[in-house]
């Protein structure tokens, strides 16, 4: 293969890579990442379904999801901590970890 052909092939490949990268960049930039509020937001129907799972099946994960909803989406720490406590009582390690960290943070603030 002649030197001019090699340069032409390399040039075409470079242009192709640039076009691909540009397309990927444009695609990625339109992806909307939900905010914390949006991520944990629940409809009334979803909240009712989770509450039923907690009451009827003692579902710790459902209680944990409700806790995250109230804390991170509704900014209602009181209601959220009640659900986190319920989840923890049902054996959810993540809920217990959250409660432990909240308590440690509260104690740190008091100093």
Please provide a written account of the structure.
The chain has helices spanning 3-29, 36-40, 44-57, 60-73, 77-89, 93-110. Helices cover 82% and strands 0% of the residues. α3 runs antiparallel to α4 (60-73), α4 (60-73) runs antiparallel to α5 and α5 packs across α6. It has two domains: 1-31; 36-110, no CATH class. The chain is mainly alpha-helical and 111 residues long.
Cα(first) to Cα(last) distance is 76 Å
User: Segments where pLDDT lies below 50 for 5+ residues?
Assistant: 6-11, 18-29
Query: What's the total count of β strands?
Result: 0
Task: Provide the residue-averaged pLDDT.
Answer: 79
Rg over CA atoms, rounded to whole Å, is 25 Å
Number of helices: 6
The percent range for helix content is over 70%
Task: Choose one word for the global shape.
Answer: globular
Biggest sheet descriptor: none
How many domains make up the coordinates? 2
Share in β-strands: under 5%
Class from helix and strand fractions? mainly alpha
């Amino acid at each position: 293969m002649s030197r001019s052909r090699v340069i032409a092939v390399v040039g075409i490949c470079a242009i192709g890579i640039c076009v691909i990268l540009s397309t990927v960049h444009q695609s990625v930039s339109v992806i909307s990442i939900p905010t914390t509020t949006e991520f944990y937001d629940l409809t009334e129907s979803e909240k009712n379904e989770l509450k039923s799972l907690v009451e009827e099946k003692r579902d710790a994960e459902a209680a944990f999801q409700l806790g995250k909803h109230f804390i991170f989406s509704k900014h209602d720490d009181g209601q959220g901590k009640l659900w986190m406590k319920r989840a923890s009582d049902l054996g959810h390690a993540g809920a217990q970890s959250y409660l432990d960290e909240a308590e440690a943070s509260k104690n740190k603030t008091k100093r």
